[in-house]
From TrEMBL:
It holds the Pfam family PglD_N. It comes from Planococcus dechangensis. Residues 2-79 form the PglD N-terminal domain. Gene3D superfamilies: 3.40.50.20, Hexapeptide repeat proteins (2.160.10.10). This is Acetyltransferase.
Length: 218
């Protein structure tokens, strides 16, 4: 498979390694820091607007290789590609259950485990050595960071960012566009657009306010 990366930074380099691990080829790295499309060492570099031309000429698939969830969604909306024009990249050292479902544009990094009947949305980042347990639902544009443990039956909303090493206990729900701090342990449902940190995780910020943290155990 030929793959076009949208984004050319550290995260894009990691995704490029994933692509290569499967014997596929990165044929372009597109980023708006470039003004013109040019080919160097058998790879195209240019602005993201070049993607439509390259898809047509090279018969390639696309990955949005940008870590920030909101920016990833913005670019998907801007490019207006069909779902089928996006690749789903699974590193050869990841373990994904045959009964799990992965959306278009999603990337699964090395050492990841996705267990039975889990459903992962589109344009999701499942980062290194995390676990998505059975029957979980991970929404579009989410990013689950390295080493996180999402236990059985958890629902993670669209755009959620779960920090490195965080744990979510079974059947809990994390509302859309929330952030869970690194190393946190989520034992309660988290409302949408909240930031929660600590052990156990406590909400310190919501969409419209900062929550008092007086005497909060972290």
């Amino acid at each position: 498979m030929k793959v076009i990366l949208i984004g050319d930074s550290g995260h894009a380099r990691v995704i490029a390694d994933n692509v290569i691990s499967n014997g596929d080829t990165v044929i372009a790295r597109l980023d708006d820091k470039y003004t013109e499309l040019e080919k160097r060492n058998d790879c195209w570099y240019g602005p993201s607007s070049s993607v439509h031309e390259l898809i047509r000429d090279e018969q390639a698939k696309v990955i949005i290789a940008i870590g920030a969830n909101a920016i990833r969604r913005k670019i998907v909306d801007k490019l207006n590609l069909s779902d089928e024009q996006y690749a789903t990249i699974i590193h050869k050292d990841a373990l994904v259950s045959p009964s799990a479902k992965l959306g278009h544009g999603t990337v699964v990094m090395p050492g990841v485990i996705v267990n039975a009947a889990a459903t992962v949305g589109s344009h999701v980042i499942l980062n290194t050595r995390l676990v998505i347990e059975h029957d979980c639902l991970i929404g579009d544009y989410a990013h689950v960071s390295p080493g996180a443990m999402i236990t059985g039956g958890v629902t993670v909303g669209d755009g959620v960012h779960i920090g490195a090493g965080a744990t979510v206990i079974p059947t809990k729900t994390i509302g859309a566009w929330s952030t869970i701090g690194a190393g946190s342990v989520v034992i309660d449902n988290i409302e949408a657009q909240s930031t929660a940190v600590g052990v156990p995780a406590r909400v310190i910020k919501t969409a419209d306010q900062t929550v008092s943290t007086t005497n909060r155990k972290v």
